[in-house]
Amino acid sequence: MKIAISYPPIFNALGQKAMVSQNRNVQFFKKPTYLLPVIHAQAATWLNERGYEVFWDDGNSQLKNFQTWFEDLIVKNPDVIVFESTTPVMKFYWNLINRYKVIKPNCIIILTGFHSMRKPEESLENSTVDIVIKSNHIDFILVRILDSIKNSPDWRNTLSVEGLAIRVSPEIIRNTGNFVQVEPLDNSPIVNRKLVSWKNYAYENGNFLRTPGTYATSVIRDCMFGKCTFCRYNGPELTFSKMSISKSVEEYENLIDEYGVREIFDDSGVWYRGKDAQEFANEIIKRNLHKRGTYFGINTRFEYLDEETIKILAAANFRFILLGLEAADNYTLDRLNKGYQIENVEKTLQLMTKYGLHPHLTIMVGYYWQTKEQLDLTVETVKKFMFKGLARTLQVTLCTPLDFTPYHQECIRNKVLLTSDYDDFDMSKIIVKTPIPHSEYYKAVRKLYSISYSPKFILRQVLFLFKFRVRDWEFLFIYGIRALRRVRQHIFNLTRNEIK
Amino acid sequence: MTISNILDRRYLTEDTFVLRVERHSKIIKAGQCFSIGTRNLGINREYSMYSSSSDEWIEFLIRKIDQGAVSTELGDIQIGKSIEVHGPFGEFCLSEETITTNKFLFIASGVGIAPFSSFVKSFSNLDYSIVHGIRYENEKYEYQQYIGNRYFPCISRPKERSGRPMRVTDYLKTLSVANYSKIYLCGNQSMITDSVEILKAKNFLASEIFTEVFF
User: How confident is the model at residue A291 (pLDDT cuts 50, 70, 90)?
Assistant: First the structure.
């Protein structure tokens, strides 16, 4: 049985490519960052281990245009195709599925991803898709269902795995309840790098200072906090699970030894904290992996890492620390259920920079309640952090309600959504009613991204050189040039829909 | 976020205590959790509520962790001092409409019993049983509140000659779950993983199982 895990190249009218991967918010980019979809890669690995012929079909990272990708898929003729859905590309997927099924009616198409998992009936109505998986644990579910599909011609009626919406006939849909992941994450395999052509993802990624870089098999599935209202990792169908430290460190060692990886980023929503984080770093040090010229990076939350942990992480050669600073006013942080307060942010950043870590801030603007004062405070606070050298890089997005997250539902309930057309949810424009003109948020985006051009910021990076840390020199001379190229693109993308 | 004064702290064992703090005007559902930390520490941790949703205060059941920055501070902080409280968060709650029509099985390990204590204190008409996995006899935290033979401790390290060691999973294997309509689990990941496997093997519907993993 041949299975394709497929990511079609999706282009918009401007010739930009949609970055569908990792169940992340989708944006269209001319020069995209190629992110390895880790859970799908684990699924591919697992199926491959069980004897299925797996076709890793990421048309984006393989730099195909749509037509080539489509024709190649027809030639490959898989028995099963797995797609990842998210709000702004739903219409594209429905059309694609319908078109493909006309050509290959016997191919079984499975839709995954947060949009379809939260509204499966919609995709079953609007397309000829066969199965919608109602869980983020695609690896665990796929290995369960494919054996049944292979062995039972009547699988549409008999498949009993929980967490599915199955098309039994054109009119009849069968629902198999909820799938709640309770198995140890260790049961899912470490990503087979060769199978997923890892090098296609190793260079074009702003998170990597050194290349080739790669994403580790995530140690956390879903999120240990899981309460932020705008985030996909929030919902009763999600459960937190954790991979063992030893298994993860084993992978790091292998990535360094076998593949020569020079930067490893774990994109778990929130990485280990406390004792687990310390144990992980100590294991890296014990195996001397911190002296092999590879940097490590993670996502974390404010108010999660204490000084002792930060110190050990730095000693273990961790560098890139991604932190969500969604706003600088506590009212907004409270409304978003962030669980931290702005007063503690500076302290965390001070500790991180004290030990040589490179904090990266992800900022959002355009909440439907965000006032001018709140917006200005965010801009000024971020400027202060960047000019003081407390954060090294940043990323700004327009807050877009997506995939039936609590924030999305709140926007619908409060009647502030300005559009119901899924194409408009591509994060290129503000789509909620706001108390101030949208142009103010676009201005803020420009101001925030322009920080990297500021003489004050550049001077601060130069001053870092006197710490005589290799990473600071690399940051200025390698990363700086690469980042500047991307900054222009980000400003264009996030402000192009501004009405002049 | 609110700043709440510590109203009381009572130690139930050498390392486990109940911390009572001001509630202010928070609207809370039984079983929800909060992120709490001492002031200016700059870090916080999530704890489920131990008290009733109608109490004038909020209580947390906390076990001091070795080198745990937050739990150690909370265990030592003076009464009358204040802490930072974020929340309530989460949906590990009972739906009010289903309370009278369901029989609940609550399965906890250690201080994972906190949300179940909150359920029991909040809903007087609840039909439930609690299976509680603990290491020692003295960890049956305030079990007298679960009146009417509803509390089943599974003690993994009982005192010599006072009983056989028992784990939650051992107990579940012998338990008939057919009488229960909803099962809630709260505690460490391995207990939850193993327990759910047993429940599924007994053909209990996964859609009626609700979990909250401690981390």
Answer: very high
Render pLDDT for A58-84 as a digit per residue (tens, 0 to 9): 999 999 999 999 999 999 999 999 999
Kindly list the domain boundaries of chain B, sorted by start residue. Answer: 2-89, 96-213
Number of separate domains in chain A: 2
Phi, psi of A397 (to 5 degrees): -130, 155
Token readout for B57 is 């205060």
pLDDT value at residue A7: 97
- Indicate if the pLDDT at residue A489 is higher than 90: no
A470 touches chain B (CB under 8 A): no
Specify whether A170 is located in the same domain as A268: no
Q: Pick from A149, A175, A201: which residue ends a domain?
A: A175
Give the C-alpha distances (Å, rounded to integers) separating A424 from A15, A405, A420, A437, B207.
16, 16, 8, 18, 34
Q: Is A128 exposed, middle or buried (0-12, 13-18, 19+ CB in 10 A)?
A: middle
For residues B75 and B19, what is the distance between their CA atoms, to the nearest angstrom?
Answer: 8
Q: Which of the listed residues A152, A175, A198 is the one where a domain comes to its end?
A: A175
Report CA A146 to chain centroid distance, whole Å: 26
Average of per-residue pLDDT across A167-180: 89
- Give residue A84's domain range: 2-175
Rounded Cα distance, B200 and A120, in Å: 25
Query: Taking CB atoms and an 8 Å cut-off, how many pairs form between chains A and B?
Result: 82
Strand, coil or helix: what is B185? strand
Contact A291, A253 (CB under 8 A): no
| Residue B195 to residue A216: CA distance in whole angstroms | 29
Same domain, A196 and A165: no
Q: What is the pLDDT of residues A385-429, one digit of tens each?
A: 999 999 999 999 999 998 899 999 999 999 999 999 999 999 999
Fold entry, domain B2-89: Elongation Factor Tu (Ef-tu); domain 3 (2.40.30)
Six token digits for residue A175: 């629902």
Of A162, A184, A303, nearest to B37 by CB-CB distance is A303
- Give the residue ranges of DSSP H helices in A260-371: 274-286, 307-315, 330-335, 345-354
- In this predicted structure, what is the pLDDT of residue A182? 67
Average pLDDT over every residue of A281-301:
98
Helix (H) or strand (E) holding A255: helix A245-259
Q: Is B65–A339 a contact, with Cβ atoms under 8 angstroms apart?
A: no
- Are residues A263 and A230 part of one domain? yes
ipTM reported for the complex, 2 dp: 0.87
* Same domain, residue pair A206 and A143: no
B68 at interface of A, judged by CB pairs closer than 8 A: yes
Helix (H, G, I), strand (E, B) or coil at B98: helix
Share of chain A above pLDDT 70, in %: 98
A136 lies in some domain = yes
To the nearest 10 degrees (0 to 180), the angle between helices A372-387 and A345-354 is: 20
DSSP E strands, chain B: 2-11, 16-22, 33-38, 45-48, 57-63, 82-89, 104-109, 128-134, 151-155, 182-187, 209-213
Among B44, B196, B206, select the one facing A178 at the smallest CB separation.
B206
Angstrom distances, CA of residue A148 to CA of A1, A143, B84, B125: 12, 9, 51, 44
Q: Do A445 and A391 fall within a single domain? A: yes
- A444 within a domain of the structure (yes/no): yes
Nearest C-alpha of chain B: how many angstroms from A187?
12
Domain B96-213 bears CATH identifier 3.40.50.80? yes
Claim to verify: residue A155 and residue A300 sit in the same structural domain: no
Shortest CB distance from B209 goes to which of A180, A333, A337?
Answer: A180
Same domain, A103 and A225: no
Q: Judge whether A417 and A401 are in contact, CB under 8 Å.
A: yes
For chain B, the maximum distance between any two Cα atoms, rounded to a whole number of angstroms, is 50
CB-based contact (8 Å) between B35 and chain A?
yes
Mean pLDDT of the region B190-197: 92
pLDDT at B161 over 70: no
